[in-house]
Structures are given as C-alpha cells and as structure tokens.
Amino acid sequence: xxxxxxxxxxxxxxxxxxxxxxxxxxxxxxxxxxxxxxxxxxxxxxxxxxxxxxxxxxxxxxxxxxxxxxxxxxxxxxxxxxxxxxxxxxxxxxxxxxxxxxxxxxxxxxxxxxxxxxxxxxxxxxxxxxxxxxxxxxxxxxxxxxxxxxxxxxxxxxxxxxxxxxxxxxxxxxxxxxxxxxxxxxxxxxxxxxxxxxxxxxxxxxxxxxxxxxxxxxxxxxxxxxxxxxxxxxxxxxxxxxxxxxxxxxxxxxxx
Length: 256
Ligand code: NDP
Ligand code: 8X3
Fold this sequence. Notes:
By secondary structure, the protein is an alpha/beta fold. It has one domain (3-189, 217-242): 3-Layer(aba) Sandwich (Rossmann fold), CATH 3.40.50.720. The chain has eight helices and seven strands, in the order βαβαβαβαβαβαααβ. The protein has helices at 20-31, 43-56, 71-80, 106-134, 155-174, 194-198, 203-209, 218-229; strands at 11-14, 35-40, 61-65, 87-90, 138-142, 181-187, 239-242. The protein has a seven-stranded parallel β-sheet, with helices on both faces. Strand 4 (87-90), helix 4 and strand 5 form a beta-alpha-beta unit. The N and C termini lie far apart (44 Å). The protein binds NADPH dihydro-nicotinamide-adenine-dinucleotide phosphate and 2-hydroxyethylsulfonic acid (8X3).
C-alpha cells in the first residue's frame, strides 16, 4: 500500500488543533484522506478550521472544545467518540514563562505540568484503553528538543518535555506485545504562537526568538508527523529530533 494512502478513512484525534503544529497536522492528515477529531479550548477556531478543511477535503471532522487539564472533560470526550480512534496526537502544550527557578511563578509551573504532562497522560489513559481492546492504534506525543536537553529558564518546561520522553518510552513498554505503536516527535524552534504564549502575550519578546533565523514552520513538523504515522504497521519510530538548520542545540542558534 502506498505510504500516504495508509491514512485514508482512519480517525485521527489531535489535541491542541486550534493553532500551530496541531492545526498544520490537521490539514496534512485531511490531505491524505484521514477523518479528524479536533480539540482545543478555542471553539471559534475549531469551527473555522473544521469549515476550511471540509471545503478542501472529502473527509469527516468532529470538534470538541475542552481543556486537557480537566480530566473529566478528557474522559467525556473520549467516551462520546463512537468511531475507532486510530491515531492519537498528543500535541496540546505550552511553555509559560522563562524565569529562573528561584523567582519563577508557581501558576506558570502548574499550567505547564498540568497541560504538558497530566493532560497528555489523561488523554493517553482513556484512548489507550480503547486501543488496547482493539489491539490497534498509534499514539504520537509531541516532545521537544527541551525533552532531550535543558536550558536556563526552562527548568519546568524542560522537565515536562523530559517527562514526555519518559512517558513515551514507558507507554511503549506497557503496550508491549500489542500491535499499538507509540512515538514521539521532538522539534526545536518552530515559529507558532508558542513564544507569544510563553511570554504572556508580549509580541516583541516573542518576535525576538525568531529574529534573523529561519525557524521550522508548523507545516515542517506536520510533515514529520505524517511520515511517522504513515510507516508500515511493523515500523515503530520511537522519536525524531528535528531542528532548523540554524539551530544546533537548545542554546546554540546562529542568527544572520
Ligand atoms: P501553539 O501555541 O501555536 O499551539 C498550542 C496548541 O495547544 C493550541 O492549539 C492550544 O489550543 C493548545 N493548548 C494549549 N493548552 C491547552 C489546554 N490546556 N487544553 C487544550 N489545548 C491546549 O504552539 P505549538 O503549535 O508550537 O505547540 C504545540 C506543541 O508543540 C506543544 O506541546 C509544544 O510544547 C510543542 N513544541 C513546540 C515547539 C515550538 O518551538 N513552537 C518546539 C517543540 C515542541 P487552545 O489555546 O485553543 O486551547
Ligand atoms: C520548544 C522549543 O527550545 O523553545 O519546545 O524549548 S524550545
């Protein structure tokens, strides 16, 4: 079977599909004939994206508005989906603040831990139970270069992404012997709403992050995700670290 047609008529659930990598992945999957379950907190965005996808592609789209920090909402969402969830893309996540350990804000820490770790775990818990009963499925966790390295001001964000790395590996082991695949995709700098969110809406600070570099685009990362989910069923990619060419580590970025 040609790689791309492996997605045809599959159901792909993407968390955090209202922006950035999640949104680009939704379009990329729809382009290959996958049906979509799109989630996020901003319902207007979900509506717009769903309308745009349905205009362009002959696929089905369902949307669910909820916060992945709300475990009951995660459960209700998964329980109300009657279609088989073939692929779960745990993408919803954020960095909040970049302050050092001794002066960082507790609320920022809670947001990151509750979203990037506990939200991802809740979705995985509910969806993997269903995948296990069908002995079929693929879970993709969006990690980060920050899950493989640490940098100053990133103690908690890096901690959450290191947790995603550990969770990905342990999930693969928990599902050992089944046909369910578990993968991570770990990007470096991607120009999305990420930095604006990290700096609490400060656009100037956010722009500085991407100044004089060619960062990855959300579409670049969606392309990698598409590659990971379209391998033959016996191929399980555990992780892919993808950096823009101008970046050599979390802290080494060459600006022209
Ligand atoms: P964006 O800010 O552009 O998108 C983040 C998405 O996550 C939005 O759709 C947002 O939706 C959703 N989200 C955030 N918090 C919650 C929540 N509590 N409940 C539900 N949805 C939530 O950032 P990116 O696309 O860049 O980020 C996507 C993932 O990629 C994140 O996990 C991030 O850590 C990771 N990443 C990003 C990199 C980058 O440089 N940009 C690099 C490496 C990894 P809404 O606000 O509508 O809820
Ligand atoms: C996002 C990449 O380097 O800003 O995960 O932490 S970085």
